[in-house]
Amino acid sequence: MLTLLSKFIQTKSDIYLEQIFNFLVTKFYIKISQKILLKIARQIQTNKQTNLSKKHILKSRMLVKSVLLGAAGTALFSYSNQKTYKAEKNAGERIAIAILYPAPGYDVTGAVTFYQKDLHSKTQITARLKNLNPNGLFGFHIHEFGDLTNGTESVGPHYNPFNKKHGSPREDESHMGDLGNIKADDLGYGYYTSENNKVTLFGEYSVVGRSVLVNKNEDDLGRGNHPDSHTNGHSGPRIAAGIIGLAYELKNLPARF
């Protein structure tokens, strides 16, 4: 217990706080069980003298079983959480990729790769596209769902698990799915690279299985005066989309594929 307290004070990690909580809950269950067992022992002794009903004693024994099962459940839950966290913490690099396909009426295609060295590292995001309008800027976002059954209309809003306003990926007040803009050259090829400290390939908020989209217009990063500036940066129609999936290795895909 003292070791857990010391580690929590040093790291302020929620993991150690959870372990302390589970330890105290388990100790509470055991303490209650001991009191009930002592009460049953006294009842049994009294039963010999006053012939208390067996039904009453049976109820007390069932209560003890419930308490002990609760303690066991708490311990197992804590152990499971610790194993999951350790597996995530000790996991090596993760790589993901999304192949972008054009929305109806557009010709934009491309690929987006995601690389994260470990749970605590920033995610490196690289994108290459073609058939964009030359020298333009195009909104670039991760959306909540990886569902393309209805094209770009079934992917949902920007991925925003913390209920933030739309903004720049460099600002704290922005969606996790806000990636900014992709810049096209004079031939219509788009390139994007960044290190993102919000996007993750690990844990509960992993973007794997979600989708990444390109919009027709520039994202105003929430700074415009349009009604949709604080939701999608007034970036216009969705012109290309792809589902983010885990990859076996990091692929340096060219724009011209």
UniProtKB/TrEMBL annotation:
A Pfam family recorded for this sequence: Sod_Cu
Domain Superoxide dismutase copper/zinc binding: 108-244
Superkingdom of this protein's organism: Eukaryota
Any one Gene Ontology BP term: superoxide metabolic process
Classification via CDD domains: Cu-Zn_Superoxide_Dismutase
SUPFAM superfamilies documented for this protein: Cu,Zn superoxide dismutase-like
Residue ranges of the TM segments: none
Stretches of the chain forming a coiled coil according to its record: none
InterPro entries with a match to the protein in the record: SOD-like_Cu/Zn_dom_sf, SOD_Cu/Zn_/chaperone, SOD_Cu/Zn_BS, SOD_Cu_Zn_dom
GO MF terms held by the record: copper ion binding
Protein name, per record: Superoxide dismutase [Cu-Zn] protein
Lineage of the organism: Eukaryota, Sar, Alveolata, Ciliophora, Intramacronucleata
